[in-house]
Amino acid sequence: MLQKTPATGSTTVDLAIPHAEGVSDDEFKAAMSRLAAGVVLVTAHDPDDGPHGEDVGMTATAFLSVSLDPPLVMVSLRNGSRMDDLLDEVPVWAVSLLAENQRHIAGRFAMKGRVSDRLLFADLPYTRGEHSDAPLIGGALATLECRTESRVVAGDHTLVIARVLATTLPPTTDPGPLTYFRGKYRALS
Question: How far apart are the C-alpha atoms of 158 and 152, rounded to whole Å?
């Protein structure tokens, strides 16, 4: 079922499918834990939270390139999460591809039950994106600023497909990527 999101004008597709018979949650998690994934920090600026707004961040491992022409990426967000709700309202956001020496950042923004993201950004080096006003994490392997094109509800997650508006690459890429494999953050080497 297609729906238009009034705030962003993006299209939402609902692909809710019942749970597969014969596959338990634990079996599915165990199988998928054997797929190595890159780790990113998704960030957005919520202009309506407080007098100056608030920066919001979320660690993600379900992030990928979708298309070269136009340049599109996709991130998977848990339905009803703060980031899912925010990206439904705020059409522009950013992604920092984390380096292997940024494990502490990934862990910090993956914590459940945190009250405010304000403290999580307090000691991190970052700049603000020109298009998104979202934090772009210093030392990341690359940063991207994105604008939501469509949202697809798929089970208990929403797939957010976005056009890449800008990228930033550091002058050198000495560290390797941070990856997630078998339930742990790992370096590639």
Answer: 5
In the chain, the percentage of residues whose pLDDT exceeds 70 is 87
CA 90 to mean position of chain CA atoms = 14
Rounded CA gap, 131 and 41, in Å? 17
| H, E, C per residue of 13-81 | EECCCCCCCCCCHHHHHHHHCCCCEECEEEEEEECCCCCCCEEEEEEECCEEEEECCCCEEEEEEECCC
| Nearest CA-CA partner of 39 in 81, 117, 96 | 96
Q: Report pLDDT digits (tens) over 89-102.
A: 999 999 999 999 99
| Residue 177 CB contacts under 8 Å (≥ 6 apart), including other chains | 38, 39, 97, 98, 99, 100, 141, 188
Give Cα separations from 172 to 131, 169, 175 (angstroms): 24, 8, 9
Specify the pairing of strand 126-128 against strand 40-46. Answer: unpaired
Q: How far apart are CA 166 and CA 151, in angstroms?
A: 20
pTM of the model: 0.85
Instruction: Extract the tokens encoding 145.
Output: 């600023």
Are β-strands 126-128 and 92-97 bridged in parallel, bridged antiparallel, or unpaired?
unpaired
Q: Please report, for residues 4, 32, 126, 154, the alpha-carbon distance to residue 189 in angstroms, rounded to integers and kept in the order given.
A: 44, 21, 26, 34
Residue 58 has pLDDT above 60, yes or no: yes
